[in-house]
Amino acid sequence: MDTFQNYIDKLNSLHFKNMYNGDFFLTWEKTYEELEAVFTVADALRFLRERNISTKVFESGLGISLFRDNSTRTRFSFSSACNLLGLEVQNLDEGKSQVAHGETVRETANMISFMADVIGIRDDMYIGKGNKYMHEVVDSVIQGKRDGILEQKPTLVNLQCDIDHPTQAMADMLHIIHEFGSIENLKGKKLAMTWAYSPSYGKPLSVPQGIIGLMTRFGMDVVLAHPEGYEVFPEVEAVAAANAAKSGGSFSKTNQMADAFRDADIVYPKSWAPFAAMEKRTELYGNGHMDGIKALEKELLAQNALYKDWTCTKELMASTRNGKALYMHCLPADISGISCKEGEVEASVFDRYRNLLYKEASFKPYVIAAMIFLAKFADPADVLKNLESKGTPRVFR
Amino acid sequence: MDTFQNYIDKLNSLHFKNMYNGDFFLTWEKTYEELEAVFTVADALRFLRERNISTKVFESGLGISLFRDNSTRTRFSFSSACNLLGLEVQNLDEGKSQVAHGETVRETANMISFMADVIGIRDDMYIGKGNKYMHEVVDSVIQGKRDGILEQKPTLVNLQCDIDHPTQAMADMLHIIHEFGSIENLKGKKLAMTWAYSPSYGKPLSVPQGIIGLMTRFGMDVVLAHPEGYEVFPEVEAVAAANAAKSGGSFSKTNQMADAFRDADIVYPKSWAPFAAMEKRTELYGNGHMDGIKALEKELLAQNALYKDWTCTKELMASTRNGKALYMHCLPADISGISCKEGEVEASVFDRYRNLLYKEASFKPYVIAAMIFLAKFADPADVLKNLESKGTPRVFR
Amino acid sequence: MDTFQNYIDKLNSLHFKNMYNGDFFLTWEKTYEELEAVFTVADALRFLRERNISTKVFESGLGISLFRDNSTRTRFSFSSACNLLGLEVQNLDEGKSQVAHGETVRETANMISFMADVIGIRDDMYIGKGNKYMHEVVDSVIQGKRDGILEQKPTLVNLQCDIDHPTQAMADMLHIIHEFGSIENLKGKKLAMTWAYSPSYGKPLSVPQGIIGLMTRFGMDVVLAHPEGYEVFPEVEAVAAANAAKSGGSFSKTNQMADAFRDADIVYPKSWAPFAAMEKRTELYGNGHMDGIKALEKELLAQNALYKDWTCTKELMASTRNGKALYMHCLPADISGISCKEGEVEASVFDRYRNLLYKEASFKPYVIAAMIFLAKFADPADVLKNLESKGTPRVFR
Prior knowledge:
Low-confidence stretches of chain A: none
Order of helices and strands of chain A: HHEHEHEHEHEHEHEHEHHHEHHH
Structural class of chain A: alpha/beta
Helix content of chain A: 40-55%
Strand order of the largest sheet of chain A: 7-6-5-8-9
Largest interface: A-B, 33 and 35 residues
Number of domains of chain A: 2
Largest sheet of chain A: 5 strands, parallel
Strand content of chain A: 5-15%
Number of helices of chain A: 15
CATH class of the largest domain in chain A: Alpha Beta
CATH topology of the largest domain in chain A: Rossmann fold
Oligomer: homotrimer
Shape of chain A: globular
Radius of gyration of chain A: 21 Å
CATH architecture of the largest domain in chain A: 3-Layer(aba) Sandwich
């Protein structure tokens, strides 16, 4: 879009009023127009920042971050998004093992929310837990607001759960839109979400699930490729299939990496753990069976090692559409010969796409900020317009 | 109060000029009118925030937090208060064991204070140490300001010491005022501060001490109940007795929980460690006698276990005034069958008061902010008026 | 300087246009006028803050801090500087052992910089590594900006590397200027940078190197004193010698503490590790030889113990110019009988200079802020003027 007014006009053409005062759990819980609203606001915020116009809509207020895992990237994306809007980040460290429930969640959620406008949670370690926990937090603060305890209901942003990784998938999609020129141009394009070998085991399923759950909504032919035994949640596959049917695209599966890459316009090769193994791990953790976890880990590494040939080579890349598919990754990638001996991708491929990969990542802070923005304002187009006409410089001159 | 002008008028009727450039150590070091000023400013700040009016009085500046213990609640309250006023929080982690003195304190206090407007300290682990440490910090920054090292003297807020927990007690009192309609309505009301069983040992005495040291100033009949051996500091009991004499209330003690609850208007059942044991622990820590500490811990747990019947049951609650006393707790509570097998309170009682408990907690950020506000402005009523008439929205629209 | 206009006039008389969009690695990479610009902006920012005028030039933006060591002082100085200008600090914890290189640095540098205006790095543990790492970070973000990944190039501030400690040396120099009245008054003054005994081993060389690399530029007679075996980097000695030749001062070395102190106007007695030993340690760490490190440590402590008489006594102080040399230290000092049995300085000497030492430290936040300021604005004099005429109060009244 060339002018700022285009973003405003676009927003005014979309229906997304249910996002106001809402939260962001899973992309497939949002309408198509709601997703478009996120992309549009993200681009509009970036447009303003690039022109040194402040997008600080909060004079004060906290953005609470709760990470069950370390995560430099997601942490910085969330902090950046909060800072962009004027919120100060306050971390709540809960530790890895302690997955609280019931009363404890309700109490903590209220205690941290007196001045909180946003809560960002990353909780992807245990199958059946992360998303559920996020819902408990949101239910608690909705009740807190209703009961007069909280003066505002903080907005939840899912920074990665056991089911979906919506800020990643949305940032990836925004990157694709920018690379292909428009959403319309994506019709009929082939996207390969494929498993790839990594020397580590147990990487979250939320990335592949997030990708197939989102990318099937834009008329693309989405192929999910993985060795036998690396299935993702069947529920998410069902979501992908339904999405594809509705969008006029397709969703298919293969156990051959080469099939997925052939004539693909976009490839996303990435390691993840088998769903069944993750369920087992969750159970073992729940029972405190540390010996069992070690045994499982060993088993998974052995299983992994059978598929070292699942790696993104330049030969595979050559088999994509005109040999020029857009290579994507959520980073950090396991690069053969660089970050590990054998990994997800050959160094020469990674190197060729490095700039594009960094650009892909650069959309995440804006996507998070847009999710917050749409939850906080009844008329976000109007607020954006006011920001632009006010024109407060981000950096004073 | 119905209108904002009421807060201004109230403030203008009070004498609190000694609070300017001051600090907040213990509630009983403050005059009655100074405490009223804190309540009034806290309510006024909340009034403005509820109406989306920014109370950011600092364009820049740091709020330093120093916690010798982990504390989600107090940490978030302090962060919220700082953020509400425009200060960025910077944590100083000193660790548990290292209780610095003399030169080290003086140096550190100056080194962290070049841009500091506030220092919040929680240091409640060692008898005879926490409050003393806070005074060393304040003496150091007063001298630093006088000697031209610091451009401003940061204000100390005692976030819990070995003697008092003033931000808790003041927030509790503000909650009581709101529940009973006014300070005047508290005359003759009975408040029971009682010990209760917890499976943990060694909880700080600063909460019961803070409660009896403050609540005796408003004409209430304050009863302190605990098993023999769970005495609090005699100096604080003396403060409570003197307060009661002056305010026209009373201060009494009992070793029967039921006595305390009978016809009480307010009950505050909570575990704490015996004073004598805490003194012993401080000495053992000082000498590095870890074996001695383990032995002491064992002894205290055994002693504790004798008093499992000191728990807030629905029968006890039924014995309070009309069976409807206000149940209070600083949270988190040890709830029988929820957070522990046997604890301070029955689940059905806790459940009935949950919303009120969360509301109680919600006053703390405002109380901390009010303490800062009163220390920073010679004419706080005027500043509040300016904030209201300026009317900068907290969230831009 | 008496009036604000003096700072503006001074700045307008200096050439420093290469600082715009630049970074601050080593003082000797900067021209004399560029250093003067830093001193002038630092004083001007302090002038404004002392008059309650906000110097917040960023409405939003992040200052990233990366510390390979714990460091209360430097951390607070950096946080203070960022806060003074309106940047929120976000910490990136990389841990001690992991010295990243190549791709990893390039990726991390970009991932943390989407909203970053400043990156402050302290990385002084390994010889030949810290400064190199900083350059890798800067090269990465320059490329990131050029390739359209970053919307702004963050400015690097070297918060201590293996070679120099420019924020310390510059703050020290600003302190000296204030104490002696002007840079001009320093001509012919004698400054003694001398080794002193400390019970710890392995203190960084960057302080003495920073001092001799900077102080030789102002026409002073700089003497470096240390026992044999405690040589600093030969390259930095060469820099000091060249500086002295150019500035009309001198740079000399001695193995006698008394020689250095005799008739000195300024003394800076401080422990540091032998260069050769630090090189050996870096190699041992690189190879993971923990046993070797322990052996080296033991050897260094034994070597150290030979020079316990290298301590700043009141007798030595009496031998300085009129017995009144300015005693300096970067703090914390090892004070005999206070922080250790035998250390760098006698308690009576330290005590006499305590206020001056704290003042010395107080310049660091302003020096860091000035380095940022000069990198961010093409016409900093104009921005300062605008800040003054706008006159936004730092604390609202």
